[in-house]
Design brief:
Distance between the termini: 44 Å
Largest sheet: none
Low-confidence stretches: 263-273
Number of strands: 0
Structural class: mainly alpha
Helix content: over 70%
Radius of gyration: 23 Å
């Protein structure tokens, strides 16, 4: 019982600031009575209406969950997975070769400086307005933190480890998979967390152009229809998704890096933000 009480107190302390801000928001919007800023209680009611008004056979999930939320999550995870494979592979190769990094480094600096939303018209011409354009937009925007953090992590492997591997004539693929990547994993996870946040942002931007479903589409549609309570409902959903995805990735990071004294999260430094 005491442990349960301790957990409840910890949660209340953790969320005390957020609860206080919501209460202030309720009082401020109640006094202002602005149609552009609905009360939190109105937003909560809208959340149930938009997302949880379906039949019992669908676990009370509304159609918009299947038609808009799930496709958006698919775009986020699919694009993020593609960017992870490309970023880790390219970052590992460049991190192990100073010559290659000298040649490719300026190009990487130039490409990562280009805002992905500015290339949406280009991607629309090249790939059309279907799902491919959205995936390409997200991948282009989120791959850079993964590449740069992987390079930084791979280059942090010490000379003692390299000399030990040469002494034992360790095959190159074992050296990469068993020594280099584990040593670089804290930096890689830092890039993955940053890229996942960017994927959520770019997903919304990509879905605002030439699409008929998704969270971004519903957000801009409700704004254009002057349904501001519904608009704030989608904004709150994006905040919940961002928090939930970050916590999920942190849990995976703690599990994967449990062998490290700091569990891989305390001293992680993000590169390329």
């Amino acid at each position: 019982m005491s442990r349960t009480v301790g957990v409840v107190k910890s949660l209340l302390l953790k969320w005390s600031l957020a609860i206080a801000l919501v209460v202030l928001w309720e009082l401020a919007t109640l006094a202002a009575e602005s149609p552009f800023f609905p009360r939190p209680t109105q937003i909560v009611a809208s959340i149930f209406d938009v997302f949880f008004s379906g039949p019992a056979s669908q676990l009370f999930l509304a159609e918009t969950v299947f038609e808009d939320v799930l496709p958006s999550l698919g775009r986020i995870f699919g694009s993020w997975a593609i960017a992870t494979v490309i970023g880790v592979a390219l970052g590992t190769a460049l991190g192990r070769s100073q010559t290659a990094l000298d040649y490719v480094g300026p190009l990487l600096s130039f490409m990562r400086a280009v805002p992905p939303p500015a290339l949406v018209p280009v991607f629309m011409v090249l790939f059309g307005i279907d799902n491919t354009m959205k995936v390409v937009t997200i991948v282009f925007g989120v791959v850079w933190p993964i590449i740069l953090n992987t390079i930084d992590g791979v280059r942090s492997v010490g000379p003692l480890q390299q000399e030990t591997a040469r002494s034992f004539r360790t095959p190159r693929h074992y050296w990469i998979t068993m020594v280099v990547l584990p040593a670089a994993m804290p930096k890689i996870f830092a890039g993955l967390r940053l890229s996942l946040s960017l994927a959520l942002i770019l997903m919304v931007i990509a879905e605002m152009v030439g699409t008929t479903n998704g969270i971004g589409f519903q957000l801009i549609l409700s704004q254009q229809s002057f349904e501001f309570t519904t608009m704030w409902t989608w904004i709150v959903l994006l905040g919940v998704l961002g928090y939930g995805l970050n916590e999920l990735l942190l849990a995976v990071e703690r599990k994967v890096l449990a062998w490290q004294p700091t569990n891989g999260t305390a001293d992680t430094k993000t590169t390329g933000a």
